[in-house]
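Below is one such protein, fold included:
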Amino acid sequence: MSVHSFEKETKGGLSDENIESAVRQLASDDRALTFSDKEQRHIVRRVDLRLVVTLGSLYFISLLDRTNLGAASVAGMQKELGMNDKNNAYTIVSLVFFFTYAIFQAPALVFMRQLGPRIFLSAIVLMWGAGFGFIPTWQGMAGLRVILGVLEAGFYPGCVYLLSTWYPRYDLQKRNALFYLIGSMASGFGGILAYGLQQMNGIAGHSGWRWIFIIEGLITCLLGIGSYFLIVDFPEDSPKSFHFLNKAEAAFVVARIEHDRSDAFVEPFTVKGYLKHGLDSKVWAFAWLYMMTTTCSYSIAYFLPIILRDGMGFSVAKAQCLTAPPYVAAAIVMAFQAWLADRMHLRGPTVVFNALMGIVGLSLLGYTSNNGVRYFGVFLATISCNANCPALLTYQSNNVRGQWKRAFTSATLVGGGAIGGIIGTTVFRAKDAPNYRPGMDATLLANALIVVIVAALSFKFHRANKRVDAGGKPIEGLVGFKYTL
């Protein structure tokens, strides 16, 4: 059955309940991908716009809400809420988010798979949007951050998982990079936005730092409502999702996945079957890699404005605005790497290159005295950890099969990222200002461990691929499937 004959037949009224069987038949046919190249590009562009851009915009506001503590801190939050070196309140407020964020990831993805991403993702974005601008004490701020962790637990791994269900393995890093690139602009331009918002100081009796939370929270709520009408569900459900794709186009998307890795359709859920994926060592290797990367990325997101102000002597305005250029550079490198890695079908070498760049950048930032050299180090360190995030998402997605394993691995990967956030917020302590040497040492060690873990995975994957070439046991239960190095 070709796509065009499928389209002709389904115009007669094929029920949604029979779509899966028809698509399975189509996906097993070598003629399944018979849309013209131009038609295929048009379908993929529509998917990109509706899926990647929408999720990236939500990730932007997610990171903005999660990391605006640094901007609010230099705008007066610590003083007004009584945060100081003795109570270590800023570290506590930064830290508590990550505990619930890590704990609720795995169950959240099960819930999203059952409820559907459109309802699930839009609802949690709407719910986390309000409250922070009106908190009277730092203890109240810490409590809200705990709730924020629960709500955001399903967002990032949910987006990563949803993207992986729509694209073949070697089209994925470009999409992960675009998704992450849109989101990471929050870290780059969030400081500039925060500086503008804090100029509202005194309006309605609220401090400038409170207006940062109030306005950004309002934007979050509006995006949460709008996203309900834009987010698309899983590809096999897309004909039922506001007619985003017709049945033939949906069949084409699913057929691409079936031809690539044969896991487009979800198998029945069982708790035992879901948790058994934790017995695979590479699942935890990916989690460790992401943990090491986010140790660096969260450290930079939370503490860069403070380091620029206290460690390098810039004013509040300059400290907030100087966070933007390194993120612009990271976006350029990230986009180029994604194109190159997808073209060459390589993942591990990209990750190692970025980690080595991070080692150089953090060394310049932490162990030199010239501000120009240190700021160049900021560029290298920021590029390193931000470019490695989409690279690792794709590295993981390319090397697992099965809907529930993909969901479990997405949750553990991002859960590792949450632990990296805990590490990043605790190793940079107020008492270590202005040089923050323990934090610098920890992030240097994290990048070194990335190199070691990727080397070990590459050795494992290379040996497994050689066994497949020799006619040995299939990888991930699929004959012909090979690991992406």
Summary: The first helix runs from residue 3 to 10.
